[in-house]
Specification:
The structure is a single chain. It contains 6 helices and 4 strands. It is of the alpha/beta class. It has a 4-stranded parallel beta sheet with strand order 2-1-3-4, with helices on both faces. Helix 1 links the parallel strand 1 and strand 2. It is globular.
């Protein structure tokens, strides 16, 4: 599943978890983060634009780690990425959490876990990734 040379793109969401906070967590992991961005995703065109720009830049060689706050946004990005052969993971997924320093992860994630339906977000992304 995880490859040392694989690159990851961090896609923050101003209606979810911003990229800078995700980066604070991910710098404690062994994941190779190549780029990060924030956006306000409102519709399919926004998801397509984001996925297309990174797919073109990295020739489809980078997977995504997202911080979407809404299930619809998580599903939209994951679906567009899947169409291009890109895997998407949510920052709340155990696969990401297990690769990060637990103290740093808990520090940044704690408040988000109280606000967002993290289980629904993770389930949505995982379902699309594994379909």
């Amino acid at each position: 599943m995880w490859k040392a040379a694989k690159k990851y793109i961090v896609i923050g969401d101003i209606n979810g978890m911003p990229a800078d906070e995700m980066m604070s967590i991910l710098t404690t992991s062994d994941l190779n983060v190549a780029a990060n961005t924030d956006n306000a995703y409102k519709n399919i065109a926004d998801y397509e634009e984001c996925v297309n720009s990174f797919t073109a830049l990295y020739s489809g060689s980078a997977d995504f780690i997202i911080g979407a706050g809404k299930v619809e946004t998580a599903e939209g990005i994951a679906t567009e990425a899947k169409k291009r052969g890109i895997k998407t993971y949510h920052i709340f997924e155990p696969e990401i959490e297990d690769r990060c320093d637990p103290n740093v992860y808990d520090y940044y994630i704690y408040m988000y876990e109280m606000v967002f339906n993290t289980e629904a977000l993770c389930d949505a992304v995982e379902k699309i990734r594994n379909s």
